[in-house]
Write a structure and sequence with these properties.
five-stranded mixed beta sheet; ribosomal protein; Ubiquitin-like (UB roll); about 40% helix; 4 helices; two-stranded antiparallel sheet; 39S ribosomal protein L39, mitochondrial; elongated; alpha+beta
């Protein structure tokens, strides 16, 4: 216990010196309690954030084959194209993963893979054209459903695939 002296006024108006007490042991307990509370809250918040896993994307194409380290579940083929060059962002219509899976340019990548960026001016635009016509058919169907009243009985169904 630490004693400090300060002046206090008694009821009679006389000034006297009165001891002021500070209990340093309780102060240390309060500091310890606050510190442990802060540490626990900090640990809880760090666990809630999680960690971002990295994946390896191997780009195959022009100008050169490149390996990119991207974020799992966050990075998209469009982000990969931005790393390669602005021209690839503008002209790429579709991504091809592992040489056989067409992938939307804005859909996040989930695992390590090889990546090719497809456009409509390539020597083999078959996959990009197929995706384009499929998208156009969905848009046309949505426009027709929106244009007609529900009483018209418009029902969209699947037709045979177009031979492209």
């Amino acid at each position: 216990m630490v004693l400090n002296v300060y002046k206090c006024v008694l009821l009679g108006g006389n000034l006297q010196q009165c001891p002021k007490r500070f209990f340093s042991a309780s102060c240390r307990r309060l500091q310890s309690s606050a510190s442990s509370l802060f540490t626990e809250e900090q640990r809880r918040q760090r666990e809630g954030v999680g960690r971002i896993e990295k994946i390896e994307i191997r780009y195959l194409g022009t100008p050169t084959d490149t390996t990119l380290i991207m974020n799992r579940g966050l990075s998209t083929p469009y982000d990969c194209a931005r790393h390669i060059g602005e021209k690839y962002c503008r002209y790429s219509a579709l991504a091809l993963l592992d040489s056989n899976t067409p992938w939307d340019m804005r859909r996040p990548l989930e695992e390590s893979c090889t990546l090719q960026l497809l456009n409509f001016t390539a020597s083999e635009p078959h996959i990009a054209n197929k995706a384009f016509w499929r998208t156009c058919s969905f848009l046309l169907g949505a426009a027709l459903q929106k244009a007609f009243k529900p009483e018209a009985g418009l029902f969209l169904h699947s037709f045979p695939k177009p031979s492209i």
